[in-house]
Amino acid sequence: MTKTAFITGITGQDGAYLAKFLLEKGYRVAGLLPRRSTSNLWRLEYLNIADEVEYRDGDVLDLSSLIRAVKAVKPDEVYHLAAQSFVGSSWEQPILTAEVTGMGVLHMLEAIREVDPGIKMYQASSSELYGLIQEPMQSEQTPFYPRSPYAVSKLFGYWMTKNYRESFGMFASNGILFNHESPLRGLEFVTRKVTYTVAQIVAGRKKELRLGNIHAKRDWGFAGDYVEAMWLMLQQEKPDDYVIATGTTTTVEEMCKIAFDYVGLNYQDYLVIDPQLFRPAEVDVLLGNPAKAKRELGWMPKTGLQELIHMMVEADLQRVKQA
Ligand code: NDP
Ligand code: GDP
């Protein structure tokens, strides 16, 4: 029988890759579409699936719209990806971030509880929960120490998901995903900012790359690999929480070098450190331990950082050429 998935945040990076993945598995896919003044389907169009998805008007801030959408779509699985997802903006818009990234999760859980508590739900939790890390390698057992309004909001969502599982027996799982990138990553995130700027430099449209803390380390993977883990979590017998990561960590500076090396340029000739881009509180290093996901989900990342950054630079070279 055909399964139905409902994705919030379907217009975002992960929403687009997940929709494609589920369509290829034969799912009927519906997505929540918040009202915006201009169309934001570009990622779904990039993957050639914009016409294969059903859209439901709604916003995670509006519980009634979620209840209506869940009633109409009748999903087997809900993937709750919608969020104000950029850590940097969360200091400028902390209240909006708390509402969308935190309360939005509770709205989704409530909508499911109200309409059909048998619907399975995936919650997009984040490695940002670990923030000021309490262990060199972070696993499902590592205590959290969030370091931004974004991370504090995600902490609320994480515990609400766990609480609804324990209180009402709902199948609700947290994926604690470490940073994952792709050619569809938003331009405000550091990987995409670097790969897009490299393409602009190659085209002669930019002369420098301005960055903040280049010593920060992240465990970067490919979004296309990570959406499979989301799906696998909802195919298990029992709901649970899983770290999804590569198990390697790299500095922002080294990631930059990979991008510039690919086009035969020396990053040091273009990099400018801009103190304005430093954050009020930094997450210095993240390194995930995906052992549980490997053991229980049979999931492993397929794409290494060099391959990922090359893929992103290549896509941006094409985009800049066509612009
Ligand atoms: P994006 O920022 O690319 O996508 C966010 C999505 O949320 C967009 O579709 C956006 O719609 C939607 N959205 C924002 N506000 C609302 C709202 N009020 N109502 C309904 N939808 C809304 O994020 P990613 O795809 O990268 O990430 C997906 C999820 O995973 C997010 O929750 C993120 O925090 C989390 N995550 C991401 C990681 C990563 O490295 N990518 C790591 C760990 C967790 P619109 O574009 O119209 O605003
Ligand atoms: P995050 O891990 O979700 O905050 O993902 P980002 O891609 O936004 O940031 C990753 C790291 O890169 C953080 O430690 C940032 O401080 C660092 N960084 C350094 N310069 C920049 C920059 O210009 N933009 C962004 N977004 N991050 C930067």
UniProtKB/TrEMBL annotation:
Keyword Methyltransferase: no
Cofactors demanded by this protein: NADP(+)
Signal sequence interval, chain numbering: none
GO MF assignments: GDP-mannose 4,6-dehydratase activity; NADP+ binding
Pfam families linked to this entry: GDP_Man_Dehyd
Protein keywords: Lyase, NADP
Domain of life: Bacteria
Family, similarity comment: Belongs to the NAD(P)-dependent epimerase/dehydratase family. GDP-mannose 4,6-dehydratase subfamily.
CDD domains in UniProt: GDP_MD_SDR_e (cd05260)
Catalytic activity: GDP-alpha-D-mannose = GDP-4-dehydro-alpha-D-rhamnose + H2O
Protein name: GDP-mannose 4,6-dehydratase
Function summary: Catalyzes the conversion of GDP-D-mannose to GDP-4-dehydro-6-deoxy-D-mannose.
PANTHER family assigned to the protein according to its UniProt record, in alphabetical order: GDP-MANNOSE 4,6 DEHYDRATASE, GDP-MANNOSE 4,6-DEHYDRATASE
InterPro entries: GDP_Man_deHydtase, NAD(P)-bd_dom, NAD(P)-bd_dom_sf
Chain ranges of the NAD(P)-binding domain: 6-312
Enzyme Commission numbers on file: 4.2.1.47
GO biological process, one term: 'de novo' GDP-L-fucose biosynthetic process
